[in-house]
């Protein structure tokens, strides 16, 4: 017998209450076996939640042309360490790339949220989405952000009556809350797995400074990426994005992007604007054991303010060098990623209350969340041509750029975007890479870099900095 959703919820609560009431007596007679206390307990099922949520979860099929290159340096160990053994600078080759993932419909007119890595491809990308009821539609990308690994799609010519999921407030989740993961693992068809929230605000797996994840033990496998993580009300609490596994299969350590960040990004995409991340005007570093000892902290947690822009929001609000941020808007933060996540979900135009430890005392500072200053016309360039940086968008290292990418440097030029299909993409240059030198020329600004790359060279000698490590590369022209 299938119960209405509200009766189902009351029945579950009653059953669990009866079960927990009997825990004391069960402990006293550990070997005793008893039947379920009520008929409702026997009928306990996730079916009402599944029926509500699964129609809004789609399969995403992507087909695109990818151009690769064979590099004369492909067998060089150092080159492989830097580029991860992928691609090189040489003669291009073209192949068809096909991928499969999942997505979640979030509005009746067919707006879908998924992962960027699900839809990332080369040229002539074709996207097809299949609904739970076997209907299929073409879709197009309306926004994609590699830093957050979120992409927003729109179903074309589909109408305005699609099933969709409502957003839940991911900040209200607690460790131990039950969740369901819905997606298309290994292409076998839509699958539902259950589990709990294992941890909140995980950053250890983050690949950018704004990524913070929910962790769950609900099985997430290849093909689940972009699928839904839903709560017991059938509302969206996260977008499944990755797993930790040495075998490729689920071992109970899965990660999802919290719904509060997904909602902000999706709203910005639908409105036709780029997501604005607040500019703090400060460089933050996660507190490790050495910093905790140096700052005389009683625990290894928080984000230390290591640099301030004199006219930035943080400095004007009263933050000082050496302050350790431990909470933002009453949410504890354990590292710099968590701070930036909290500011981003709070949103530009608002004010965040930041709690810091200063000389052993707790101090609270209200910081206005402002957008980063706009760069001038000569601060950013899109590079193209017969050189290694073809397809890269580069910027002078302005205070706002240094803040966004957490850079120590003020000299050099930083890559802020890489166009798929360009030479820079095939060479695996990444946003945040700092171009320090080409040949004997120290790169001071984007105009200089643009000028140098316009001159053909038989051999490119490049010095870059990535993640604090300086590397020198040589490649033929």
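Sequence proposed for the structure above (477 residues):
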């Amino acid at each position: 017998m299938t119960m209405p959703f509200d009766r189902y919820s009351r029945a579950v609560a009653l059953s669990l209450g009866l079960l927990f009431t009997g825990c004391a007596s069960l402990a006293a007679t550990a070997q005793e076996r008893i039947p379920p206390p009520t008929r409702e307990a026997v009928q306990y099922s996730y079916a009402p939640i599944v029926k509500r949520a699964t129609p809004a979860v789609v399969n995403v099929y992507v087909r695109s042309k990818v151009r690769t290159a064979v590099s004369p340096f492909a067998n060089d160990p150092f080159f492989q360490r830097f580029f991860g053994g992928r691609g090189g600078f040489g003669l291009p080759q073209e192949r068809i790339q096909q991928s499969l993932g999942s997505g979640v419909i979030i509005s009746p007119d067919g707006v879908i949220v998924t992962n960027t890595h699900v839809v990332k491809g080369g040229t002539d990308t074709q996207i097809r989405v299949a609904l739970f009821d076997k209907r299929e539609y073409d879709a197009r990308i309306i926004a994609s952000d590699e830093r957050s690994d979120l992409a927003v799609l729109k179903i074309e010519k589909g109408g305005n009556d699609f099933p969709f999921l409502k957003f839940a407030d991911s900040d209200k989740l607690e460790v131990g809350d039950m969740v369901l993961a819905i997606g298309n693992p290994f292409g076998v068809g839509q699958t539902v797995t259950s589990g709990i929230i294992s941890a909140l605000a995980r950053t250890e797996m983050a690949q950018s400074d704004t990524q913070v994840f929910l962790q769950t033990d609900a099985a997430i496998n290849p093909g689940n990426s972009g699928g839904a993580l839903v709560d017991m009300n059938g509302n969206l609490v996260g977008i499944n994005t990755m797993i930790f596994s040495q075998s490729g299969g689920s071992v109970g350590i899965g990660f999802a992007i919290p719904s509060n960040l997904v909602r902000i990004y999706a709203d910005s995409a639908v409105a036709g604007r780029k997501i604005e991340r607040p500019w703090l005007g400060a460089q933050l570093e996660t507190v490790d054991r050495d910093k905790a000892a140096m700052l005389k902290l009683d625990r290894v947690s928080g984000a230390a303010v290591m640099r301030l822009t004199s006219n930035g929001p943080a400095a004007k609000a009263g933050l000082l060098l050496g302050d350790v941020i431990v909470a933002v808007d009453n949410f504890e933060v354990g590292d710099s990623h968590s701070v930036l996540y909290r500011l981003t979900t709070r949103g530009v135009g608002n004010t965040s209350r930041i709690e810091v430890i200063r000389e052993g005392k707790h101090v609270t500072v209200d910081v206005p969340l402002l957008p980063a200053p706009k760069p001038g016309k000569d601060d950013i360039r899109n590079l193209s041509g017969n050189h290694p940086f073809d397809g890269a968008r580069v910027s002078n290292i302005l205070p706002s750029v240094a803040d966004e990418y957490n850079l120590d440097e003020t000299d050099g030029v930083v890559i802020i975007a890489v166009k798929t299909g360009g030479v820079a993409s095939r060479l695996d240059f990444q946003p945040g890479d700092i171009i320090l030198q080409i040949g004997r020329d120290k790169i001071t600004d984007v105009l200089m870099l643009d000028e140098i790359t316009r001159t053909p060279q038989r051999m490119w000698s490049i010095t870059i900095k990535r993640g604090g490590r300086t590397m020198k590369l040589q490649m033929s022209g």
